[in-house]
Amino acid sequence: AGPFPPAAATDPSPSPAAGAPLTADEQAFLTNYLARLQYMVYYDEKAGIAPQLAKVAVTQANRYLIEKHGLSVIDFDKIEQNKKDQLTAYQAETGGSISIIQYIAQKNNADIYVELAFSVSTSTTGSRHYATAQGSMKIFETSTAQLLGAVAFQSPQSMDPNSMDAAISNAITASVWTAMPRMMDQSKALIKGALSRGVRYELVIQK
């Protein structure tokens, strides 16, 4: 199902009205839909990120969604647990045709899943520890795993007089918080553009 079904749901060909201006009701629906998009944030497991740093980044992204937008989130530990608990169901239902992260995003009703990839640079001068984080957030549409876009980020240099771990954590937090509003704006714009052009439907009736 989708927000704007064409007049003939059994005809998968493009509607003649595709691209027509939205009605007031459609525009209101779209605005409301975009305001309540649900996100699932995880990290690119192929990027070689230390799990403890990945958790810091995902936790900060989720904190932004909660504190700034009042959205429900799927936390890092729950995704990790779902990867174990739902592995058998994932293999039976998909045969590996989609990634397990996409599968978990679908099962948790996420509209968008975001994949973080980043690296951290560090240095120490005297007793002062410095760190910067740089990377990207890839934005995927959950139902199709289509890559909608990506947002690059880099933190300012973070310094901590006592702990390199604290400097790294601060750098990751700063970079994620800077990138999150741009990620949300980009995902909403891309989803809006796609939905405004209409949604193709294929109806299969059995028996």
Question: Care to describe what's here?
Answer:
With 207 residues, the protein is an alpha+beta fold. The chain is built from 6 helices and 5 strands, in the order H-E-H-H-H-H-E-E-E-E-H. Strands 1, 2, 3, 4 and 5 form a 5-stranded mixed β-sheet that branches. Helix 2 (51-69) packs across helix 6.
- Strand fraction band? 15-25%
Outline, from the CA principal axes? globular
Order of helices and strands: HEHHHHEEEEH
How far is it from the N-terminal to the C-terminal residue, by CA?
21 Å
Radius of gyration: 20 Å
Broad structural category: alpha+beta
Summarize the amount of helix as a percent range. 40-55%
Biggest sheet features: 5 strands, mixed
Overall mean confidence score, pLDDT: 87
Total strands: the figure is 5
Low-confidence stretches: 1-18
Separate helix tally: 6
List keywords for this structure.
five-stranded mixed sheet; 207 residues; globular; single chain; disordered N terminus; 6 helices
Produce the secondary structure layout:
Layout: H1 24-35, E1 39-43, H2 51-69, H3 76-85, H4 87-94, H5 100-107, E2 112-125, E3 128-141, E4 146-154, E5 158-160, H6 164-196
Outline of the structure:
The protein has 207 residues and is an alpha+beta fold. It contains six helices and five strands. Strands 1, 2, 3, 4 and 5 form a five-stranded mixed β-sheet that branches.
